[in-house]
Design goal:
- The longest helix is centred in the N-terminal third of the chain and has 13 residues.
- By secondary structure, the chain is α+β, with helices and mostly antiparallel strands.
- Strands 1, 2, 3, 4, 5, 6, 7, 8, 9 and 10 form a ten-stranded mixed sheet that branches.
- 17% of the residues lie in helices and 35% in strands.
């Protein structure tokens, strides 16, 4: 057995050859093993360039100071379907603390309201492919509209009352 002697004591200084060579702990110091693994992964399973670009662009959308508004109602999941109804709008409700954001998404665009009512700047984030998000303004009653329907994944970033709130990401 490794490091064992006839008297069943363990000799910490004893080393057994690995692959026919002596193990040298200094060889693996300072992250050398990690770097070798990174190089092997880069050669054997490289990250596609478009995925790396998407990850970088998605990170830019991150707002560390923002509070996350939780989705509490989605008509696709929570509503009872009406027989014969076609082209019904998607209703969404997000909550962050005492702020509620109600949104209606239709083929003509989106409209919504902040509760309690308050003016706010709103950005419609359409994922990392869009460099400039659609910017909306909520009036004094908290109402906002856009004639652009979000496509693909989207979220809202609201700037109101000195704070920033970001909704969860959803598919339109």
């Amino acid at each position: 057995m490794s490091g064992m002697h006839g008297d069943d004591t363990f000799d910490e200084g004893a080393q057994e050859p690995i692959g026919g060579a002596e193990f040298d702990p200094e060889e693996f110091a300072d992250g050398l093993l990690e770097e070798e693994l990174r190089q092997a992964a880069a050669i054997l399973d490289p990250v596609p360039a478009e995925l790396r670009l998407l990850a970088t662009e998605a990170y830019v959308l991150l707002d560390v100071e923002a509070r996350l508004a939780e989705l509490t109602f989605d008509s696709l999941v929570d509503a009872i379907p009406v027989r014969g109804a076609t082209d019904v709008p998607r209703m969404l409700t997000f909550v962050a603390g005492d702020l509620t954001v109600d949104i209606e998404v239709t083929a003509e665009g989106l409209m919504g309201q902040l509760l309690p009512p308050q003016p706010a700047g709103i950005e419609v984030l359409n994922g990392p492919q869009t460099l400039a998000p659609t910017t909306l303004t909520a009036d004094g009653m908290g109402r906002f509209t856009s004639d652009v329907t979000p496509s693909g994944p989207f979220a809202l970033r609201l700037r109101a009352g000195g704070g920033v709130v970001v909704t969860e990401w959803l598919r339109a």
